[in-house]
Amino acid sequence: MASLIPTYPLRTAADLSPLLDAIGEARVVLLGEASHGTHEYYTWRTALSKRLIREKGFQFIAVEGDWPDCFAVNAAIKQPEITYGSAAQLLQTFNRWPTWMWGNWEIAAFVEWLHRHNSHQPTGKRIGFYGLDVYSLWDSLQAVLRYVEQQGDAAVAAARRAFHCFEPYSADPQEYARAVAFVSEDCQDEVTAVLQALRRQVQQHAPTNLPERELAFGAEQNALVAVNAERYYKAMLRGGSASWNVRDEHMMETLASLLDLHGSDSKAIVWAHNTHIGDARYTAMRRAEMVNIGQLAREHLGREEVFSVGVGSYQGRVVAGREWGAPFETMVVPPALRNSWEDRLHQQLGGPNALLLSEELKEDDQLSTLLGHRAIGVVYHPEREQFGNYVPSLIPERYDAFLFLDRTQALHPLATHPQANVPPDLYPWGE
User: Fold this and answer.
1) Which residues form a coiled coil (predicted)?
2) What is the pLDDT of residue 144?
3) DSSP state, 167?
């Protein structure tokens, strides 16, 4: 069937040139994915990220991952020599379920490329890799305590008080949230005091060289994670949209801080699920009073400064779990539901992968309506997909561009043993 939708062929990285032209001088590029377990989503985001770094001077990548784990990768890829054995060994740090989300061979290959690229750059020009997420309450508290004890600064007492406040809950933030749900005593004041003490310390004794400045920033960010994670887990217990909003507001706060750290002319690439990077105002999420980083970035930075790219597919295979914490499986992704966004693309394009630009899509009146748009989470039941895996979306407004991949393959996870006491990764659709 001849295509009624304007598209560009998508076969190799060279075919991304129209997308780079459309991105223009945008300061932040948000790159999505319709699942956390699809090989092509990772490889196409990698291909685009490499071109953005080489051709447009983007300076760091911020991902939907925990700050401490990503900061370990960031430190490793900026060293002149390989100090971590192999990329696969380095990625064992991602041991929170779903471990495959960042512990996979596709990311290992990208980490190796980042290290090679950085090895030819001066210290101040090396590409960074950071985490945007809010889950790592206990790990972040431990990292703060180690940092302040090494520095011997005034924040030590505050960090120890916060650490001891959470200690009775056995490093389980959900146990903490349940314990404080019906009492007036919690650890909010303690984690806030740590963040304030670290910020005062940085203001009074700001490091002059970049590596030390980044270490200080990393400690401050861990303190911010602890503050917002404490809020997140209490909100999660109450239910509703509050915990989702705490999480995405933290992502935006972290992105803004990273842009400040790297300077007024800095440029950032964000990797996260479509549900985070596609502007929530143009989806059914708006009715639930949910926001996301795609919306917040446009609001805070200006729409002309932000370019969002959705990614999705018609059918294939995916890595996911049947239940939270279950072993991962390779599952069949069935053909998209009739009249969904993915089904329309499949029917009109007849099979090949394609790049679509929203400015051109807006000329089609048939697309100026809410269409079901597939979203697969880390927990997935293909046989029940029609009951909860489609987000009603106004595609040309939700994204600035879209990569359509007709048939996709499963991600290639590393063999990483997940740690216990991990929180659910909540999505409004697709679990």
Assistant:
1) none
2) 92
3) G
